[in-house]
Design a protein that fits this description.
The protein has a domain of about 250 residues: 3-Layer(aba) Sandwich (Rossmann fold). It contains 16 helices and 5 strands. It has a 5-stranded parallel sheet with strand order 3-2-1-4-5, sandwiched between helices. Helix 3 crosses helix 10, helix 5 crosses helix 8 and helix 11 crosses helix 14. The longest helix is centred in the N-terminal third of the chain and has 18 residues. The two termini are about 15 Å apart.
């Protein structure tokens, strides 16, 4: 981690505030005592089964085709749960993602719901985000994914959404200047209005929606892999052996656009390399050495120069851009999300109220992913 992260500080030993915060926030989850972990899992599974008794499914597992979500689905089945796997198709799936999902679903024998986003509408929304010059273009996908999972939970009366998010590989807070509040429905609507985009079918999710689902309907979004001693490399080896899983070079690269966004747009336009926080988390969880991470950071945030050039061509064709349009976009300065309509102030107010009532310290939940 370095000073590209807003608000970072370093102590006399050179340890950064993000690492120290990771230690403090996740101390209770850094448990490797198998007996304790087994009891946590058993208690949780029993609760999910009890809440789902008599229903077709007792939980939802979001499935991207990446290692974390794939292993979360396997783990749910292993413990006797009846998950509905949910996948979001926004038109940018890689061939590897499709292969991994099909293989996993087939061998586990679980139902898969795929929400296919209307491409024309999604393309127009993406164009508005590019024209707005805001950093978090992935807000679109992440917000819609959240909305669809909660919608299906309501449809089937499900109380538990099990995610592949976890402390071991992504527990470090992402700097607030590297992304935006993922539940900012108002921001999406405001940026859409820049190009007069009519949102007809695109799923949206905001602060009020979260409060309703979390506190009234009591639907819980759980980082399922935190209930085990999760090791990324062991997980990938297992998935390759049992499900013919095909891994990706970096986190979230199962989507062609996410690969292009994280590997090219963020570094070139916004001077942000998310590998810093991803590798730092692996270092903190003991799954990567600092020297190994520093060596990896010397390479491109891309599998190869050839793949980057292929993705540039694919992006230009899919978005119907010229090379000049891409160059102009990269060259333009960043604009803040708050320049447009946003419910971030409302989110912050609600979070402060909740923290005070619960007696918990203030944490920027919008930047934890």
């Amino acid at each position: 981690m370095d000073t590209t992260a807003k608000g970072i500080s370093f102590d006399s030993q050179g340890h950064c505030s993000f690492c120290r915060e990771y230690e403090q926030r996740h101390l209770d989850q850094m448990i490797v005592d198998n007996a304790i972990l087994d009891k946590r899992m058993a208690d949780f599974v029993a609760r999910v089964k009890r809440d789902g008794a008599g229903k077709k499914y007792d939980c939802i597992v979001g499935l991207s085709g990446g290692a974390d979500s794939s292993y979360a689905l396997y783990l749910a089945k292993q413990h006797g749960l009846r998950p509905l796997a949910v996948h979001m198709d926004n038109g940018w799936n890689s061939e590897l993602a499709v292969h991994n999902i099909q293989s996993l679903i087939s061998k586990l024998g679980v139902d898969l719901y795929t929400h296919v986003i209307d491409w024309d509408e999604y393309k127009q929304l993406m164009q508005s985000f590019f024209d707005a010059d805001v950093i978090d273009v992935e807000l679109l996908y992440d917000n819609a994914m959240t909305a669809v999972n909660y919608q299906l939970a309501r449809k089937y009366g499900i109380k538990w959404i099990l995610a592949g998010t976890n402390v071991a590989t992504e527990g470090m807070r992402i700097p607030s200047n590297w992304l935006w509040l993922k539940k900012d429905k108002k921001n999406i609507q405001a940026i859409a209005r820049l190009n007069n985009v009519k949102i007809r079918t695109f799923p949206l999710f905001g602060t009020v929606d979260f409060i309703y689902n979390e506190f009234i309907r009591k639907v819980k979004w759980v980082s399922f892999l935190d209930l085990i001693d999760y090791n990324k490399e062991n997980c990938i080896s297992f998935l390759k052996s049992e499900f013919s899983y095909k891994p990706y070079p970096y986190k979230h690269y199962e989507s062609v656009f996410t690969r292009f966004y994280q590997g090219y747009i963020l570094p070139e336009k916004f001077t942000v390399d998310k590998r810093k926080v991803h590798f730092s988390t692996l270092i903190m969880s003991g799954q990567l050495s600092r020297d190994e991470a520093k060596a990896l950071m010397q390479s491109l945030p891309y599998p190869s120069e050839k793949t980057l050039n292929e993705d540039i061509d694919f992006f230009l064709k899919k978005m119907r851009w010229s090379k000049e349009q891409l160059a102009n976009y990269i060259a333009r300065p960043e604009k803040p999300h708050l320049q447009y309509g946003s419910e971030k102030p409302l989110w912050d107010f609600c979070e402060d109220v909740y923290r005070k009532l619960a007696g918990k310290p203030r944490t920027d939940l919008s930047s934890i992913r």
